[in-house]
Fold this sequence. Notes:
The protein is of the alpha+beta class. The protein has one domain: Beta-Lactamase, CATH 3.30.450. It is built from 3 helices and 5 strands, in the order αββαβββα. It has helices at about 10-20, 55-70, 110-125; strands at about 25-35, 35-40, 80-85, 90-95, 100-105. The chain has a 5-stranded antiparallel beta sheet with strand order 2-1-5-4-3, sandwiched between helices.
Amino acid sequence: xxxNLLADEAADKIVTVSRTAIGDSLRSVTYFTRxxxxxxxxRGDLEQDADLTSFIGHEWHDFKTAHAAYEGTELGTxxxxxxxxxxxxxxxxxxxxxxxxxxxxxxxxxDFENVATSLREVLRDEL
Length: 127
């Protein structure tokens, strides 16, 4: 899928990192900013018409809330969010400017950590 927000190379890197960490369990990859988003990948067996606008608003707002709420706690620095649903999971990695969320089928905690770490590195170093 082409991106309007990212150079093709950056979009490809995000998808490649996600596919490498998650494999065939990857359902979708969405890059977002505060005001816009691009779905970079959607597995072929999934519905193509999901409206992601409400997801983006919620994920951006929730990042700001979680980051502020947990700042300075004994838990340490906030890193990423995992959301569990009946049909899969959503992993969100966000910084002050942008974020990525991936949706997956079932994964292990190590798989979640791998994809979150890899995506944080891409957001920090590549974009």
